[in-house]
From TrEMBL:
Residues 40-73, 127-146 are annotated as: Disordered. Coiled coil: none annotated. This is Host attachment protein. Residues 40-51, 134-146 have a biased composition (Basic and acidic residues). The lineage of its organism: unclassified sequences, metagenomes, ecological metagenomes. Pfam families: Host_attach.
Length: 146
C-alpha cells in the first residue's frame, strides 16, 4: 500500500500527518521554530551600519538584504524540507500533500529537490497549522491518491 503524508505548515510551526485511510489522519511529527515568531528587533542585536550617499552629503542606514525574520523562516523551511527529503529517500512515504501559508509555501518550494517535488501530489495555499485535524481533513481530496 502506498503511504501518503500531509504537511501542514506556517513559518513557525508545522505538523506532519500520515494519511492512513480516507478519514484518518495520524499526526506523526510536530516541528516548531519559535525564532520565526520573534520581532525583528529581538532577532537583531544592534543597529544597521551607516553610509554616505554616493552623490551628496546625506547619510543613511544600510538595508539588510534579508530581514532577520525572513532568514529564520527560510531556515525553518530548509529544516522541514531536509526531513521530508530524508524520509522520502528511506521510502517512509510515496506521496505528499502540502497545506501551507502562502509565503511559507513559496519558501518550501524554493528548498525542495526535484525528487521531493515529484512526490508532491497537491499544494494548498492556506494557513491551517493551528487548525484541528478535522478541519485539515476537509481540505484534502475525497479519495486517497493512487
Amino acid at each position: 500500500m502506498k503511504t501518503t503524508w500531509v504537511l501542514v505548515a506556517e513559518n513557525s510551526r508545522a505538523r506532519l500527518f500520515n494519511w492512513k485511510s480516507l478519514n484518518v489522519l495520524d499526526e506523526i511529527k510536530t516541528f516548531s521554530h519559535p525564532e520565526s515568531r520573534l520581532h525583528e528587533q529581538d532577532l537583531v542585536s544592534d543597529k544597521r551600519g551607516r553610509s554616505f550617499d554616493s552623490a551628496g552629503y546625506g547619510r543613511h542606514a544600510q538595508e539588510a538584504p534579508t530581514s532577520a525574520r525572513q532568514h529564520e523562516s527560510e531556515t525553518f523551511a530548509k529544516e522541514i524540507v531536509a526531513e521530508l527529503d530524508q524520509c522520502r529517500s528511506r521510502n517512509k512515504y510515496e506521496k505528499l500533500f502540502i497545506i501551507a501559508a502562502p509565503h511559507f509555501l513559496g519558501q518550501l518550494r524554493d528548498e525542495m529537490s526535484p525528487s521531493l517535488h515529484k512526490a508532491v501530489v497537491q499544494e494548498i495555499s492556506k494557513n491551517m497549522a493551528q487548525q484541528p485535524t478535522e478541519d485539515i481533513r476537509k481540505h484534502l481530496p475525497d479519495s486517497l491518491p493512487v
